[in-house]
Design goal:
Strand content: 15-25%
Strand order of the largest sheet: 1-2-3-4-5-6-7-10
Largest sheet: 8 strands, parallel, barrel
Helix content: 25-40%
Number of strands: 10
CATH superfamily: Divalent-metal-dependent TIM barrel enzymes
CATH topology: TIM Barrel
CATH architecture: Alpha-Beta Barrel
Structural class: alpha/beta
Length: 349
Amino acid sequence: MMTTSHKHPALHNAMWPGLVGKGPDSEPPIDLDTMLNLTAAAEVDGVRFDGVDLFLSLPHTDIDSSGDDLARLAEKLTSRNLRAGSLVAPVWPPTGGGSAMGNEEERARFLTQVKKACGIGRQLRDLGVRPYGVIRIDSAASPADWAKDPAGSTKRIAQTFREAGAIAESFGERLAAEGEICWAGMQSWRVNVELLEMVGMPKTVGFQADMAHTMLFTMGYNAPEDRLLPADFDWSQTDRFAQAYREMARALRPWTIDFHVAQNDGTVKGSGSHDKTGRHCLPLDPNGKLDIVRDAGAWMRDDNGNATRAFEHICWDGCMFPNSVMHSPQTWNDVLRIMMAVRNAHGWD
């Protein structure tokens, strides 16, 4: 039997794997009620998920939800003993947003989506179902477009993020930019740090660290000049990998305000409309390159080994799994068990 060593952070499951990578050229989306039910049903030695992180886009949660819509959403959560945490703002062109480094019209659409997401976040707080969490964003543009003018592109993204940060502050929210190899100006650990320093709003605009996506930074995908491991790296050298992973996390940890537990097999994958990014794996995947519990500590503990307490919840992210895997109750029990192990190793009371 697994005992619970700490009360904090809270354990959440992400809802967007029911949507991301799904679509006409892939598998159909999994509706929100099904995702909530699968999450609420998971149980390991009497422990359950505390909540969920939400994707503010149809067919899950409409970014233009009315007050009544959000009240119904709150009831869906409370009836399952779940809370809401971080919210994904649909800042991309296909979901009504626009490039953060685009023209004024594109940037305006980006900022409109951030404002709507922050409004939903505040309403869910007022409804009593969202005691913590951030609004998740990215640059909504590709590294290829960014590379045409790296300095100018980063400057425009930073300007957009600063304006978005001002909007977030007006709602009492914070923004977390998720670094992934598929996002402009966010495709390596170094350019992420440069971007956040240029934004210069550490109390409002921070970093969302996904264990799987950030692992790709050590390998130099889309940014070979910033790789920390050689191209022919021997994955049996686990200590060397752990050292490179800690080096990468050390640069981004001071900015990290939201955290995703995940696994990765060192390859990239795209599905549906989603560009190629780090391939999420199940926690027990034999090809997984991360020691999830050990490597979570690179984000959850400082250089002196103390818990950072930088976020009140942690969330499992497993995008682009087949629907058959998503519908299996065993999947979520395995996920919950590894989340408990991470909290036992690096949590606090």
